[in-house]
Amino acid sequence: MSVWNQDRYIKAWNYASVAHNGQQIPGKEIPYINHIGLVAMEAMAAVAHDPIERPDLLVVCALLHDTIEDTTTSFADIEAAFGLDVAKGVMALSKDKTLPTKEAQMIDSLNRIRKEPKEIWMVKLSDRITNLQAPPHHWTKEKIAKYKNEAIVILEALGEANRYLADRLSLKIKEYQQYE
């Protein structure tokens, strides 16, 4: 096992910082880059607990996971800057917003993620762990329950990728039930 390449990590962090510049976490006055950093931290903790084959792919994709979905960044942009494997991973992690429902988008994304290396699965697990913090105050109990149930679907679909992240997500799901 090797660790991630620090120069690629810094390049991906700077790239994500520019791509997400000015964005905030919905419902909060926190810069969106905070979310990106938290996802990367979850991914790095997983590597520390459970060595994996391609930690560099994991960390770089964690840093870039929302660039295609939430910015003007394209697949070609990511491929040119970080290579095909990273671009494919980030694309798999991006919801297809042309699909009619959030449920259809989630199922499609999970199907695409499952075709990628386990490191990409781990990014999605890390992302949902990070997102299971206190929900925005304007969310209804129904929306909160639906979000928790999505987390269960993600865990069932991708949990086999990494025991540490699966255990963390399972714990976060249990803790999130307090908001229902």
From TrEMBL:
It comes from the Bacteria. Pfam families: HD_4. Gene3D superfamilies: Hypothetical protein af1432 (1.10.3210.10). This is HD domain-containing protein. It comes from Neptuniibacter pectenicola.
